[in-house]
Write a structure and sequence with these properties.
Length: 189
């Protein structure tokens, strides 16, 4: 199902870059060619490490069609650090090992996702200085663990979007949660 959404997204992307036929035809795939082979840029999926292990067809689709993979939830703070100061990289490391064994690049999900997907211990922090320090420690710990294993992170775009929203509305849930300042936004760069 994610694959179908991905293809629909590619078609939409073609529409965004231009309405010329050649822009859209560049993503058409010859029947004998895989999606990863057809593209001149990394093609990836958000994948479930559990599904890679349990489903042969899922695993084979990822192996054949993707050149890059991202963890669906295995690399989110609630999974990596369910308790403050306690880190469990086991499932994320399995994803990294799978990617390496298949010569796939790994694109990391955003290091700090929105508050609803954060572990409960993180949601309970109300002091902005403590939250910034805690998030900085978390980002440094996770970044150090995955250094050299993750090719790219979904972070800068989130910062840009957050900054635009922060400046326009000052109503982002993290900002409201802790009366956070621009210091948090600078930290995520």
């Amino acid at each position: 199902m994610k694959f179908l959404f991905f293809l629909a997204g590619l078609a939409g992307l073609g529409q965004l870059v231009g309405n010329r036929k050649e822009d859209i035809s560049a993503v058409r795939i010859a029947p004998a060619q895989t999606l990863a082979d057809a593209a001149s840029f990394p093609i990836g999926f958000a994948i479930s490490p559990a599904s890679v292990q349990s489903s042969t067809s899922y695993r084979q689709t990822v192996i054949q069609e993707a050149s890059s993979i991202t963890a669906d939830v295995a690399m989110k703070p609630s999974r990596i650090s369910p308790q403050k100061g306690v880190y469990n990289f086991e499932v994320a490391d399995q994803l990294i090992e799978f990617a390496r064994s298949q010569k796939k690049r790994v694109h990391g999900h955003t290091l700090v996702w929105y508050i609803d997907t954060s572990p409960n211990w993180l949601k309970q922090i109300r002091d902005s200085t403590e939250l910034e320090t805690t998030l900085q420690t978390y980002i440094q710990t996770v970044g150090t663990h995955f250094k050299g294993k993750v090719a790219s992170w979904m972070l800068s775009m989130k910062r840009l979007i957050t900054k635009v929203l922060f400046e326009k509305t000052r109503s982002i849930r993290w900002v409201k949660h802790c009366s956070m300042s621009e210091g948090f936004l600078a930290m995520t760069t």
